[in-house]
Amino acid sequence: MGTRKRLVSSSTSQPSSSSSNPQQTTQPNIPQQQPLDPPMAPPKWGFLLKLSLFSIPYFYLIFFHFSIDSELRRSIIINAGLSLAGFFVTVRMIPVASRYVLKRNLFGYDINKRGTPQGNVKVPESLGIVVGIVFLVVAILFQYFNFTADSNWLVEYNAALACVCFMTLLGFVDDVLDVPWRVKLVLPSIAALPLLMAYAGHTTIVIPKPLVPHIGIEILDLGWIYKLYMGLLAVFCTNSINIHAGLNGLEVGQTVVITYAILIHNIMQIGASKDPEYKLAHAFSIYLVQPLLATSLALLSYNWYPSSVFVGDTYTYFAGMTMAVVGILGHFSETLLIFFLPQVLNFLLSLPQLSGYIPCPRHRLPRFDPQTGLLTGTNDGTLVNFFLRNLGRKSEKSLCIYLLGFQGIACCFCFLLRYLLAGWYK
């Protein structure tokens, strides 16, 4: 995360003044060369190779541990192949898009490196637009291989893509116009409208078994309240990713961890269930999460410390909306919220400042010491500063690893909680 700085375009050529020396007037005008920005660093392939090892448990569950219907497995593999292609396209497109956004003066300076040579480098901003576009192309192409014209899921699938596309557009508008916080809360509500209008699924919830004797019913129909809950979930997911930020790789890293946990959860539910409709709901989730994970990994290869690009609000809104849509249509919104436990804690810590009860600065980042290269926590209410205040001074890279490790622990806690409560809670 860095401060964005936009410059007013001005012509570099100045009218030449007349000179009394006739020899000077006969010399051709030689344009002065502008200082060039340093070339962007290549993707961090070694880092991605280490992350690829985490895909082994996922594919083990698909091919060996669970007996999954061959047709369903085929669709998942086709989607994975298209997602892999989207990964390589994203890796190639990010440097190209970086040059264009720099020409439009859409860049930022890394605040956490202020006072060092890296702090003076123009870092391309809003590269989440590349991820959003490639994701949408992959998701649209997948329809050819999986959905028929009379498919019951096609309407909701297209509604989900419309929400993601709408949110990506509004996120890029936010990056360009830098809209105030109150407007940021409204944007996800607008982007969620296609899904809310097209949603034709159930609006019921299962009452937890311990509460059934007191309430007297097992299933409660919420009606329009359920759709209101869907809209609020979209608002929370998009903004919670957006405010849990400030470090190289943190926004994309938390998305990668959560999407991987969602994939594992979906495969486990497909393998354990006998209900065809329930299986299709979780397969629907996989069809959207695999492209999200692949394109996010491509962006992370440039955004990991030291970051060559900034993701911008475009990516955080896009990723949050995609995961919200997946949780809603996959019918595991409760599980999704537990996966978002660090984001919930960060929101609760941020609430006094976001509500205006405590003054809120524009950038609630830790203090950087250019002499030591370490970050020191401030009194701002963020999980980043909370970790620094309790763990002591850390480098930006190590702090990000701690936070992503905590994200992984939260996801593991969710799986443990589901295992312990299975058969008793619902």
Automatic annotation (TrEMBL):
Q: Which Pfam families match?
A: Glycos_transf_4
Regions of compositional bias (Low complexity) in chain numbering: 9-35
Where, by residue number, does the polypeptide cross the bilayer? 45-64, 76-94, 127-147, 154-173, 185-207, 228-247, 253-272, 284-305, 317-341, 399-421
Q: What topology does the record note for this protein and the membrane?
A: Multi-pass membrane protein
Do the record's keywords include Disulfide bond? no
Top-level division of the source organism's lineage: Eukaryota
Q: What is its main location?
A: endoplasmic reticulum
A GO CC annotation recorded here is:
endoplasmic reticulum membrane
The pathway noted for it is: Protein modification; protein glycosylation
Location(s) in or outside the cell: Endoplasmic reticulum membrane
Name one process (GO BP) from the record: dolichol-linked oligosaccharide biosynthetic process
Catalyzed reaction equations: a di-trans,poly-cis-dolichyl phosphate + UDP-N-acetyl-alpha-D-glucosamine = an N-acetyl-alpha-D-glucosaminyl-diphospho-di-trans,poly-cis-dolichol + UMP
EC number, UniProt record: 2.7.8.15
Region described as Disordered: spans on this chain: 1-36
The top EC class is transferase
* Metal-binding is among the record's keywords: yes
Q: Which UniProt keywords apply?
A: Endoplasmic reticulum, Glycosyltransferase, Magnesium, Membrane, Metal-binding, Transferase, Transmembrane, Transmembrane helix
Q: Name one GO molecular function term.
A: glycosyltransferase activity
Cofactor annotation: Mg(2+)
Family, similarity comment = Belongs to the glycosyltransferase 4 family.
Purpose: UDP-N-acetylglucosamine--dolichyl-phosphate N-acetylglucosaminephosphotransferase that operates in the biosynthetic pathway of dolichol-linked oligosaccharides, the glycan precursors employed in protein asparagine (N)-glycosylation. The assembly of dolichol-linked oligosaccharides begins on the cytosolic side of the endoplasmic reticulum membrane and finishes in its lumen. The sequential addition of sugars to dolichol pyrophosphate produces dolichol-linked oligosaccharides containing fourteen sugars, including two GlcNAcs, nine mannoses and three glucoses.
Q: What is this protein called?
A: UDP-N-acetylglucosamine--dolichyl-phosphate N-acetylglucosaminephosphotransferase
Tell me what organism the protein belongs to: Trifolium subterraneum (Subterranean clover)
